[in-house]
Amino acid sequence: MNIFKATADFERWLAKRLPIVRQDIALKHQHMADAAFPFFRATFYRWLQLWPEVCPELAKAPPVLAVGDLHIENFGTWRDEEGRLIWGVNDLDEAWPAVYTLDLARLATSAYLAISSEHLSLTRREAAEAIEEGYRDALAAGGKAFVLAEHHQWLRVLALGKLRDPLCASGQKCSSARRTPPSPRAKRASSLRPPCPSPAAPTN
After folding, report:
1. Number of domains in the chain
2. Residues with Cβ < 8 Å from 46, sequence gap 6 or more?
3. Among residues 52, 202, 58, 200, which one has the least CA distance to residue 116?
4. In this structure, is residue 195 part of a structural domain?
5. pLDDT tens digits, one per residue of 103-145
């Protein structure tokens, strides 16, 4: 099955479950053709078909309640019921039981794609180490959300700065604050092996 048939099958399946706006689907296809990252974001169905073949050992890992369609743009901030600024995964509409490596491999792949297109100022190794370290730390902490007023002050400053960026008369941002997070710690660097990369988009 190639990408065109996979996409057509998915959209037929989706149309049976919710109303489809054809103009929006056409626009989505245009964005998918623009670059690798939007293609990756829009084709989770294709990832599910191919990743067990490309990464068979990772696909045998223990199952958990997975986010599913996880990538770096599925993280963001919101206010909890106490008004505190929280950071974490903010897109859970495809959460489903799956092997835990599904989320880790897909998140790392999205970071690699963002790095290759110069949208993320890290090396692949730094990204892989940060993902592994964050996953281990979150497990140790019991999966608690990041309350930015209490911890992770650098992330709070980044999030609030993005919300406050002023616009000049031209409509462009007047300042360009540095958006690069601090470098992750280098522990386990010699033994860390980055997750299996994403399969290339089929062309036939």
Report:
1. 1
2. 3, 6, 7
3. 200
4. no
5. 999 999 999 999 999 988 889 999 999 999 989 988 898 887 7
Q: What is the H or E stretch that residue 116 is in?
A: helix 100-116
| Position 62 in a domain | yes
- Does residue 173 sit within a domain? no
Q: Kindly report the length of the chain.
A: 204
Has residue 127 been placed in a domain? yes
CA distance 116 to 93: 27
pLDDT at 61: 96
43-58 pLDDT, tens digit per residue, is: 999 999 999 999 999 9
Domain residues for 72?
57-164
Output the pTM of the full model.
Answer: 0.73
CB 110 within 8 A of CB 72: yes
Q: Name every residue whose Cβ is closer than 8 Å to that of residue 110 and which is 6 or more positions away in sequence.
A: 37, 40, 41, 70, 71, 72, 73
